[in-house]
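Section 5.1 Outputs to date
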Amino acid sequence: MRRSRVLALVSLLVVVIVAAPAFAATQSITVMVPPWAEIPAAALQQFEKATGIHVNLNIVGWDQIRDKIAIAAVGGSSPADVVEVDWSWVGQLGDADWMMPLNQYVDDAMRSDIPSISIFTSGKDVIAVPYSNDLRIGLYNAAHFQKAGVAGPPQTWDAFVEAARKIKAGSGGRLTLGPCPSTESDHHELNEAY
């Protein structure tokens, strides 16, 4: 949970700091995120101290975010200055021209650091910056795969499990699938086993 909050803050900071001149005129922004992305008060205070921009945090149920975006956009307004969106909404949001393109804030270095940013691109416009990935958006370290003798990304779950075993064994147990938010998930079971 702490990791996702930190990632949410980082994402917020990336978008807002690069766009700070636009927000500086108002000295206040509204950020709408689901409960799991709530940014800790201390981090918000630190951000405000560093930028002079006050953040009004609006926690909204995940199922309501897209509806709020659509209703506000149809009415010619916005539900917030910064909004968490799902990758699966990108086409709709982009085609409807409901999101401000972020192209001027995303340079080649950022694209290189965040390869999954292409998933949040509609046409030629970047409309969101991803801050968290899971197995639905799998990224892998090619050097770790090569060192373990794995030819490339697994194409089946069996190949995924075999690759995880080889990579963990080749690293002396140092490399695993990564942190898991809950002991009640399939991800946790894979971590414990591999």
